[in-house]
Amino acid sequence: MSEELKKGLEGVLVAESELSYIDGDAGQLIYRGYSIDDLAREASFEEVLYLLWHGHLPSSEELAAFTDEMSTERQLDENVLTTVRQLAEADENPMAALRTAVSSLSAYDPDADAEPTDREANLRKGRRITAKIPTIIAAFTRLRDGNDPVAPREDLSHAENFLYMLNDEEPDDVLAETFDMALVLHADHGLNASTFSTMVVSSTLADLHSAIPAGIGALSGSLHGGANQDVMEALLDLDESGKEPVQWVKDKLDAGERVPGFGHRVYNVKDPRARILSDKSKALGEAAGSLKWFEYSTEIEEWIGENKGLAPNVDFYSASTYYQMGIPVDIYTPIFAMSRIGGWIAHVLEQYDDNRLIRPRGRYVGPDAGQEFTPVDER
Ligand SMILES: CC(=O)SCCNC(=O)CCNC(=O)[C@H](O)C(C)(C)COP(=O)(O)OP(=O)(O)OC[C@H]1O[C@@H](n2cnc3c(N)ncnc32)[C@H](O)[C@@H]1OP(=O)(O)O
Ligand SMILES: O=C([O-])CC(=O)C(=O)O
């Protein structure tokens, strides 16, 4: 047994997966052999979900059937909506609200009592959870802002329907396509911390409804998905400060802080998703007649790259993209979950198919054995 300590499990190989491959030096990401650039440009989020869960790109018939199955599952049970309403009234954090509401879905899922490893039941459960997450996020956001929830529509795509429920208005083509592409880009990314969390839970043979809230919890942290919200808050802080972007970054680093949206455990170069999203951020700025957010971002990117050797990750440019789409800043991470649910489910399915309990070990560095026990009233 190796005694080498791998803090953060860095570089440790723990599973085989057919889902996504990352070349951290070349800045390349593929899902089941397809490059993220091609998928972002050509495929819808529904096609990518099908690819991840079923192993191949769907034919038109397969896609139509899959899209129908998903879109009919968008409604929430009245009790789940009541839970969402209560969480909004309590001013719950959006990721915590999503975690709680998703956990409650099992109570109303007809397959809740199926064997945890039943693949067909898991595909049905997965479709239901994936279809309902946008409804939960949109209803929560509207309710806490004092608006009534907007019921989902079955005739819109996953991306269109979310923006429609959020704004009570059908999105134009640019917004719908940009959002769909953002969902495609975030759908899977190897054994990132939230995906690994879902794998650990499912490796105990706990069910899908137990694994997914673990993924949401892990994604919420500022070192992982929570960074997209932090990035936008940082850009807003820079704007308010009136400082030049470079000065603002220097001050932040001098204060011992990290710059959200930079650095990555796997990429040593610019994250390919950030490359695609930076183009989108620029295009939205041009359409709106102001490149302010894009220019702040590129100036920071250039300086940090040259002076710290750090490159932007996916969260850096999704932030200004979502901001220019008018999406509230504190639901950027729930939106990440809306997409990553695709990868979580796919990895849980792989885990069940070839399961071994995930259980590493820690090196004990506490007091030696043989400590003398003293009864509580003598201490
Ligand atoms: C979807 C995603 O999850 S993408 C990641 C989103 N998270 C963020 O953007 C948060 C900011 N980034 C970070 O904190 C890190 O880069 C992580 C957590 C993503 C990766 O961390 P690790 O692989 O553990 O790298 P580690 O934390 O050891 O950093 C290596 C060095 O780079 C520095 N560094 C890494 N990221 C940053 C950053 N964003 N700002 C400033 N310095 C940084 C560290 O201080 C460290 O320097 P040191 O060796 O002099 O101490
Ligand atoms: O892979 C990681 O560690 C983080 C990441 O970029 C993701 O989950 O998309």
From TrEMBL:
<feature type="active site">
    <location>
        <position position="264"/>
    </location>
</feature>
<dbReference type="InterPro" id="IPR024176">
    <property type="entry name" value="Citrate_synthase_bac-typ"/>
</dbReference>
<feature type="active site">
    <location>
        <position position="315"/>
    </location>
</feature>
<keyword id="KW-0808">Transferase</keyword>
<dbReference type="Pfam" id="PF00285">
    <property type="entry name" value="Citrate_synt"/>
</dbReference>
<keyword id="KW-0816">Tricarboxylic acid cycle</keyword>
<comment type="similarity">
    <text>Belongs to the citrate synthase family.</text>
</comment>
<keyword id="KW-0012">Acyltransferase</keyword>
<dbReference type="InterPro" id="IPR036969">
    <property type="entry name" value="Citrate_synthase_sf"/>
</dbReference>
<dbReference type="InterPro" id="IPR016142">
    <property type="entry name" value="Citrate_synth-like_lrg_a-sub"/>
</dbReference>
<dbReference type="InterPro" id="IPR054872">
    <property type="entry name" value="Cit_synth_Halo_CitZ"/>
</dbReference>
<dbReference type="InterPro" id="IPR016143">
    <property type="entry name" value="Citrate_synth-like_sm_a-sub"/>
</dbReference>
<dbReference type="InterPro" id="IPR011278">
    <property type="entry name" value="2-MeCitrate/Citrate_synth_II"/>
</dbReference>
<comment type="pathway">
    <text>Carbohydrate metabolism; tricarboxylic acid cycle.</text>
</comment>
<dbReference type="GO" id="GO:0006099">
    <property type="term" value="P:tricarboxylic acid cycle"/>
</dbReference>
<dbReference type="InterPro" id="IPR002020">
    <property type="entry name" value="Citrate_synthase"/>
</dbReference>
<protein>
    <recommendedName>
        <fullName>Citrate synthase</fullName>
        <ecNumber>2.3.3.16</ecNumber>
    </recommendedName>
</protein>
<dbReference type="GO" id="GO:0036440">
    <property type="term" value="F:citrate synthase activity"/>
</dbReference>
